Amino acid sequence: MQNIKQSLIEEINKRVQDKILEPANAELLKKLINNAESSEEAINIAALGTTYKRTGLHFDKRLEKMTDSIKYFKKNEELSFRADDAKPVNKLIIGDNYQALQNLLIQYKGQIDVIYIDPPYGKDSMGEFAKTNYTNAITRDNLLSMLYPRLILAKQLLSDEGVIFCSIDDKNQAYVKCLFDEVFGEENFIANLIIKSNPRGSMSTEEIANLHEYLLCYTKNRIESNFVGLDLSDEMMEEYKLEDKKGKYRLLGLRMRGGFWRRSERPKLFFPIYVNPNTNEISLEKTKEFTKEVLPIQPSTNEDGTWRWSKEKILANAEMLIGKEVKRNETTIWDIFQKDYLEREHGRKTKAKSIWDENEENNQNGTVEVKNILGSTALFAFPKPKFLIQKCIQLVTSNSKNKTILDFFAGSGTTGHAVLDLNKTDGGNRTFILCQINEKTEENPNGIAYDVTSKRLKRIMTGECYDGTKDFPWLKDNQPYGGNLDVYEIESVANFENTPGKSPFDVIDETLYGKEKFKTVKEKIDWVCSNFEKTQKELGE
Asked: Whole-angstrom Cα distance, residue 335 to residue 459?
């Protein structure tokens, strides 16, 4: 026990030297540690001074408004449809996404594979934010306050392998990333992707024409997550020009590139490899056949570098390595290369890059898509292109195509469109759940969910409008995707209704479940658990 105490005291002293802990506090802690009656007690005392204070994001939280009513999903039969019974049923939920997420937890907790969201970014002028309120504008505090409880619910909905993507602009990226760190943990941060959304540059600022937005990526549990990567492009496929009995391959240098990979930092990865100049085979031992010594020297600086593989890995995979003469700085030298085969067990994939600059990711494509489907660009501002969301989904679902994708800021319904198109491309059976509040605007007098989201899904899935017409441009170049859509609206039941002879629970049971009073709580629980679909009350019941 004395050794443990001494070790703890040494750590306390180190924190004083690093000016992290006040000397007076340190002396008190050391006295308490010396007087501790057990190792466990000493460790707990030391933790008061050796545990770093957790710092996090601070903002003025605005709590969700609580009501005296119970929210539930009520099916809208007029907007729901069946276009192909052989395909799965997708969902569109119209209403506040906070209430939608709460209800989704009943059925989908830990079952959502991918979440993509594109929350409102706020106005360009930050100076006016203090004068606005929650209902008519998104301030920075309001944006964070609005996102925080929804991300808490979203995290619970994600599977252990689940991944969440969030589009955000440069003004709010830093703050929203801190919020994601707070909710999902910094250890589960994957990337802050740069999306070239406007190749011509935005004219909203005078100084710099902004070309990009950001796409935050986090996992539920990084250890469990499965990033399978993207399919190879035609250009990448052309790199695999060499071939042997195992198939087509390309050559990748075994030497680690970059100035950080020096012998001094990774000494065990610096060692000679010997090449047989007649067969190009390699060995870790110099023999009569293996005569050409190759070291991982950085060609630009002539510094000692490192190999990518250890000796153990080289011995186990020697047949995948070859020696080859190459020309460096006007000098011919030997170097070591890995055969990177095209065919792999789960199909050939490539890592996504941190900058996405393909033309298909241009936001203008999203605008064109909406216009071709709905006939106007004025109905919804700044829709995301379906290609962007497809790429997100592909990163984590291409090896398993029976996944569930959630977007609780659905907007024009691009995420649903992306899922349908991706299924058509690769034969997948993915389903989507979209949530969109029915915000009314001058262009959408019936609300965005009615006039934009549901109409878009109806047209691309069935090939016709709700009124039966088929006169939108998208059909000229595309075939309807088919599939099925259930549309729900969030309705409420008052916790208390002054109904003679009936308790509030009687009213709720009758309204939600179409059931007379349950005799016991257990009976009610058993019924709800065995008849969950019936709790999503349908119109006309």
From this structure: 58
CA distance 43 to 40: 5
Fold of 74-159+168-186+363-491: Rossmann fold (3.40.50)
pTM: 0.68
- Could you tell me if 296 and 305 are in contact, meaning their C-beta atoms sit under 8 angstroms apart? yes
Per-residue pLDDT of the chain (541 residues; tens, 9 = 90+): 888 888 888 888 887 887 777 788 888 888 888 888 888 888 888 887 766 554 556 666 666 666 667 788 889 999 999 988 888 999 999 999 999 998 899 889 999 999 999 998 754 433 333 333 334 445 677 788 889 899 999 999 999 989 999 999 888 899 999 999 999 999 999 999 999 887 777 766 668 888 889 999 999 988 777 776 666 666 777 788 898 988 888 899 999 886 557 888 888 999 999 999 999 999 999 999 999 999 999 887 888 999 999 999 999 999 999 999 998 877 889 999 999 887 765 455 667 778 888 877 778 888 889 899 998 777 777 789 999 999 999 888 766 778 999 999 999 999 999 999 999 988 889 999 999 999 888 888 899 999 999 999 999 999 999 999 998 999 999 999 999 999 999 988 765 555 666 766 676 666 666 677 777 777 777 777 776 665 555 433 4
- The SS3 call for residue 286 is coil
Say how many residues make up the chain.
541
User: CATH 3.40.50 spans which residues of the chain?
Assistant: 74-159+168-186+363-491
| Nearest to 196, CA basis, from 358, 364, 390 | 358
